[in-house]
């Protein structure tokens, strides 16, 4: 099973999630929804960053993702 790394930076107000090795980051693409997709050199999404994360409502929320081999 692959590991998912999650980083909450309260000072920067961001949540970063890595699906793959962060050292493989090549380019980032902003989606316009305060989400930045982090991609490797082949264009595959290997993580994302959510801006203004602490401004989200203080209630539980679900996160779902699917891996493709």
Write a brief caption for the model.
The chain has no helices and 5 strands.
Order of helices and strands: EEEEE
Give the count of structural domains. Answer: 1
First CA to last CA: what distance?
A: 11 Å
Which shape, going by the Cα principal axes?
globular
List the uncertain runs. Answer: none
What is the count of β-strands?
A: 5
Relative helix content: under 10%
For the biggest sheet, the summary is: 5 strands, antiparallel
Rg, Å, rounded: 13 Å
Structural class: mainly beta
Give the integer mean of the pLDDT values: 84
The count of helical stretches stands at 0
Beta percentage is: 35-45%
Query: Going across the major beta sheet, what is the strand order?
Result: 1-2-5-4-3
Secondary structure elements and their pairing?
Elements: E1 5-9, E2 14-18, E3 27-30, E4 35-39, E5 45-51
Antiparallel strand pairs: 1-2, 2-5, 3-4, 4-5
Write structural notes for this entry.
This protein has no helices and five strands. The chain starts with a strand and ends in an 18-residue tail after the last strand. Helix content is 0%, strand content 38%. It has one domain (5-55). Strands 1-2-5-4-3 form a five-stranded antiparallel β-sheet, with no helix packed on it. The protein has strands spanning 5-9, 14-18, 27-30, 35-39, 45-51. It is mainly beta. β3 and β4 form a beta hairpin. The model has no long low-confidence stretch (mean pLDDT 84).
